[in-house]
Every structure is written in C-alpha cells, then in structure tokens.
C-alpha cells in the first residue's frame, strides 16, 4: 500500500544551519503517526515544510500521489491537509461560530463566495463539531476570550471542519486536563477511520495510547521508526532521551 | 438575546430608515445650492464606504483611494469636456493653449459618452485589480501596502501635473457645461443630480453590505484577523484581498464620476495625499467596522467643515487633527463602537436581570486592545 | 548631448541624494528601531525650519548655531509626542500611522495660526550662496554644506549605533524586545530616546531645507512620502537608507537630465513600487524582517 504522504530526502537549511537533514517518511493512509523527538529535533519545521509555510532546500513531498513541494499554503490545504498549530492559532476577533464556519472551506473561490449566503450542510457539520469540541454554548463568544484549553479545542474543531484527508496536530493536548486528554485520544482514534493523522507530541503516555507508528526525529534526521514497543526498546532512542534528561 | 447591534434584521432596518431619510431631503429642501452640497456629501459617503469595506472588513489600509477616485473623476471630466466639443471645434481650448493641433489618442474614446463613462469606471477598477493583484501576491500587507498606495498616488499626482497638454496640469479640467446623458442635461443643482448620487450611494451600500454578509465577507474578516492562519484553511488570501480592494476601487471610481457631475471640475488636488487621508479619517472617526458608521463619519466631518469651517476657519484643521488623534487613541473602532458597546451594555443588563448571573456581560467586549 | 552636462547631472545627483537622505534619516531611526510609521515626520522637518527662522529672526542667532539648536528643539517636541501619544500605540502600527497623521494636521495648522501662511526666509551666511566650480560642472556651496552635514550625521549615527553601549541596547531591543528586557534593558526608554533623536534629525533637515527653499507651514507634506520610500526601499537600516537615497538621487538627476524633473519623479515612484514588489524586505533586510 502506497503512503498517503511521502517525504523523500527532505532538507532545510537556515543560513548555514541544517535544521532538517535528509529526512524521509512515509505515512500510510488510515494510520496515526506520532512524530516525537527532543526539542529542536525539527518536528514543527517538518510540519511547516509539509504545509508549505517554508520551502525546503532540497527533497520532495508527495501527497496522495501529487507533488506538493513548494506549493502555496492554500493549495496544499485545499489538497486535503489540515493543520493545528503548536501555539493555538484561532481568529481571535471572530466568534467561535465564525471560526468554525470559515474553516468549512469546501468553496474557496472568492467570486463564488461573493454570492454565497447559505452554506449547504454547514449547520449539521457545525453542530456536530461544536458538540465534539464542547463549544456548543460558546458559539456566540469572541474566540479571543476563550481559555487556553478551549482555544485548543476550537482549533481542533477548525481542522475537523476542513474535512482534511491528512491532519497535522502540533502538540494538541498541551494545557488539557486528564479527562480532556482521554477525550482527545478517543477522537483521534475515531478519526483514523476516515483520515490519516500525524501528531507531534511530547507526552509519551499519550503517544503510547494513540500511535500506530512512532517516528523519532533527532537533529533534523530520522532516528528510528516502528511501533511504540520497537521504538522504546531502541538503544539509540534511549540515548537521545536519556541524554536530554541528564541535560535538563 | 445578544446585542441588537449585531442583529442582521435590525441592521437592514436601520439602513432602510437611513436611506428613507435621505430620500425625503430633496422633497423638503428647495435650496438648490444646499441640495448640490448635500449630494457632494453623498459622494464623500461613497468614498468612506469604500474605505470601510477595504480597511474595516478587509484589513487593507488604503491611503491611495484618491487614485481610483481621481481617475474616475478625470474620465468623467474628459467625457463632459468632449460633450461640449463638436465637429467644427473638436479640440478642447486648454489643449490649443498648449499648442496641440489634434485630439490625442488618449482622449478620442471620450468623444462617445457611453464609451467615456465605461472607461471612467473600468480604467480605475482595472488598475486596482492589477496593482492589488501584484502587491497582494507578493504578500505586501499592512503598513507596507499603505505606503505603496501612497507611492502610487504620488506617482499619479506628479504625472498628471507633468502632462499638462493632456490633463490640464495643475489647473485641471473644467468642462464648460453640465453632463448630458441620453439627451437629458443633468443640472448639478437639480434634484435629478441628487437622485443620481442617492441611487449610487444606496446601491453601493447595499452591495457592500451584502458582500460583508456573504461567505466572501466572512473570509475577508478572517483575513483581517490573521491572514497567515487563513491560508492554511485553503483560501487564497491574495485573491480575496485583490477582489475586495478592487470592489472598493470601483465604488471610489463611481464616486469620482458623480463628483465631477456635481462640481464640473477636477484637478490634481483630488489625487492629493491629504484628500485620500481625509477619506481614511472619515471612516476611522465614523467607525471602520461599520459601513453606515463610515458614511456617517463622512457626513459629520464634511458637514462640520462646511458649517463650523466658516466660524472656525483658522482652527478647523486643529480641531479635526486633535479629534482624530483622540479617536485613534481611545476609540480605535470609531463612533460606531460607542453605539455597539452602549447596546451591548443594554443587552447585558436585560440578560442579567432575566437570567441568573451567567458569566459576565462579556459577549461584547470593548474593543480596548 | 555632451559629457560635461551629464557629469554635472551626476554631481547634482549626489546632492539630491543627500537631500533625500537627510530627510529620511530621522524616519529611518524611528522606523528601524520601533517600527513606528511617523506621518508627522514632514511636519517635524517643518518645525525645524521654523525653529531656525525664529532663532535667527528674534534672537539673531547665527545660522550655523541655529542648526544644532533646531535639533534640540524638535527633539524635545518628539520626546513630548512619544510620551504623550506614540508609546500607547507601539503594538498597533497602522494606528500609529493614523495618529501621527492627526499630529501632522495639528502641527501644520498650529504653525499656520502662529506664523501665518506667508513664506518665511532663513538667511544663510553669504559664503554659502556662492557656487563652487569644478571646471566642467558647478554646484552651489550650500548644497555642498548639506552634503557635508548629511555625511557627518550618518557617521555620527553609525558611531552611536555600532560603537556605544546605547547602540548595543537599541539593537538588542530591535531584535527582541522581551529578551532585551530580561537583560535589564528598558525598551520604553530606548524607544523614547530614539524617537527624540529621530525627531531632532528632522529638525536639522528642516533648518537646512529652510535655506534651500522657502519656509511654509505646508512644506513638510512634500518630504514625508519620499522620506518613507527611502526607508522602505532601504529596509529600515541606516546603510539601507544611504544606499536607497544614493541610488534614487542619482537616478532622479539623470532621468531629469533626459526628461524633466516632474517626470523623473514619476518614474522613480513607479520604479520603487516595482522594486518593492520583488524585494518587499528592502535592500538590506534586517534580522526578523518586519512586515
């Protein structure tokens, strides 16, 4: 089975520093891949490269058989990649409802949208997602006044509204309570039936719970890949993590 | 429930009332000079509206709206000028004074009134589409875009002054007679002229309002909030910005045509930096997030300038500047936000008296940040 | 066309460049450090011209002393402006642009109320009104003086920003305000001082322009847009503004030699727009380029 997302020999340098170094990854459709690694390993940069926020120095990114390397952000998003940012990025001046509505981006052409006042199927979808994200009573509020946890949920909700084939979640459970983390894990496992996920996470407990495949990055390269058991017993991974713990 | 300020039905009712009042004016007033003046306020209202659409809803501060306005105005003036030329006398006098012995190519389409009108609106609109498209695609935004519009405005200003044989230079154009359309002369001091402006203002306002309520409007407001984030939702930010900037330019171009119809005059002063900035001041004081608020801002400021201006001629700019500073510093969303928070308080009071204390009345936070 | 007059145009270009540059210097400092778009910059230049005029007319101060005196007067105005208004708007760049435009209206009309709309003149020493002849080309002495003052100021600013403790602090604040604060650098104070410094530089420019042209309440308006363009093209750094002014000054002079002055300005404006389309970060991008 071919991967939904294939990254081939990706490299990215800022000036003289190589942030991503010859990194390759294949994510199979319908799986949940956790991207882990110490700080500065290049996890968020990898997401930036996939979503077109920055352009790679070399290498190739294939999504659903299509080369998306160096395409514009909105083109990549339209191809079916949704992203939740590490620092929750919601539209703070709009209401929660507007945030979700604008994320329901089936029609992205400005000219068509000029004449569009009702969005077919939006209401059901919005109800569903708002309930899932626990924001049903907060729809009329300005997103800027939400608590950190609520903002996290809103952004997860926004990504879901986009109905992407591939979801990139950058530290989705930061700032969540135990109960919320369990709920997130449940939702992610559910999502796997219809979509593919890449989750960047530090919390190894959470990773253990949700991951089909774990990919460990270190210094911009692939260190190890496999099931959580394989990865955790890998001596190189232990070195990297233990080394970091000593430093910390 | 909620703040009535955000209720769409209530908004449309207010719009209807507003235009009903404007429609009564020519029936009640028979001072033709006053009517002409009020009609020019309508033109300023259209300009403020265009700024509100572009800046308030699209987040694009445009300090060069005078380009679209001025090009529209010049097109209209050229059309009107050519209406007073005939076969025996095809060349406008100022060209003869500049020793041009034939009508320049640039002027020839304006011999036909319909073609002239189409060009007057199409040229500025096309300019906005091209200039905006180029700039937004390069991701020029915020203060940078404002400066670029300023540079472009200055470029037009200088070229119009420089090409005196074609543009009338500093003196501008003064078409000798009123605008004629389909055999009817539109006397600038007649109610007809007022109605023309009224219709365009109302049409522009309704279109602008519909745009802000459409899916398009929602996306532009999202872009205003965080353009970077919106890209990852799949929207082409540059495309949306170009469209809203161009629509605003179109409105300003129509305003330019109306203006020349009313005053029979155009000069480089219409492309002066200070005039474009006044448009921004109108929208800022009235409330850029409110279309009607911006139109009101134009009415208030220009009305005050005309009536207080006589008594406070020397201090008017001082008052205006000071007032503007205060608004920007303490009321960034203009006078309309006073109404918004007032109604919000009212709604909160009603809610807290009916229901038990359910969160604080923060549904309508003062735009204080 | 003869080579002599082209050479003359090139030399004149250097002079024009120095005028563009000195008008833009203060703005460069303010924009480069605090990211503030100060639309009142032209009016600060105008205030500089009026301060020199006042000092000369009422106190009989010699012109050469009027220049530094204008610096301090306008710097003080800038200080008041920063403390009273700008500091509340640092995180709202578009609002600073608007508010400072309000300030420019107030300053212009205020000066008009006090001094009237009729032009004033600043008398420069007789030695400045002569021409320096280089055989093939000649240039007025005063333009050489402007060039000299500009060069001196650029050198002074370079020393200040790259060789002093204050300069290190300014650059630290530019790079990262929060980080600088954690090293005990008071960014509010830095902003205040740079704003005053930038205003003072506008004052110097004004006292020079007042001799070059007549002194009018509206004289500032013509400088602000072009000064901005220099800063934006340069990318907000001192070296950038120097390079941008140099290139534009020469270009304008040469273009004006082939066409005329107004048309040359038109071409310059268009070229700048085209240039910024392809290099929005300016000639010399700064670390963490501002958008």
Overview of the structural elements:
Chain B: It is found in: Cell membrane. Chain B: It is a multi-pass membrane protein. Chain B: Its main location: membrane. Chain B: This is Urea ABC transporter permease subunit UrtC. Chain B: InterPro entries: ABC_transp_permease (IPR001851), ABC_transptr_urea_perm_UrtC (IPR017778), LivM-like (IPR043428). The complex is a heterotrimer of chains A (248), B (369) and C (291). The N and C termini of chain A lie far apart (41 Å). Chain A has helices at 43-50, 73-79, 96-103, 110-114, 122-132, 148-161, 178-191, 204-210, 228-233, 235-247, and strands at 3-14, 17-28, 32-36, 58-63, 66-67, 81-84, 166-170, 196-200, 213-218, 221-226. In chain A, strands 6-7-8-3-9-10 form a six-stranded mixed sheet, sandwiched between helices. A four-stranded antiparallel sheet of chain A has the order 2-1-4-5, with helices on one face. Chain A has ten helices and ten strands. In chain A, a hairpin with a 2-residue loop joins strand 1 and strand 2 (17-28). With 248 residues, chain A is of the alpha/beta class. With 369 residues, chain B is mainly α. Chain B is 70% helix and 2% strand. In chain B, a hairpin with a 2-residue loop joins strand 1 and strand 2 (184-186). In chain B, helix 8 runs antiparallel to helix 10. Chain B is globular, with a radius of gyration of 22 Å. Mean pLDDT of chain B is 89; it is low at 356-369. Chain C has 291 residues and is mostly helical. Chain C has a domain at 21-219. Chain C is 74% helix and 2% strand. Chain C contains eleven helices and two strands. Chain C has helices at residues 3-34, 41-59, 63-84, 93-115, 141-163, 165-175, 177-182, 187-212, 221-234, 238-258, 261-278, and strands at residues 131-133, 138-140. In chain C, strands 1-2 form a two-stranded antiparallel sheet. In chain C, a hairpin with a 4-residue loop joins strand 1 (131-133) and strand 2 (138-140). In chain C, helix 1 (3-34) packs antiparallel against helix 8 and helix 9 (221-234) crosses helix 10 (238-258). The radius of gyration of chain C is 19 Å and the shape is globular. The N and C termini of chain C lie far apart (44 Å). The model of chain C is unreliable at 287-291 (pLDDT under 50).
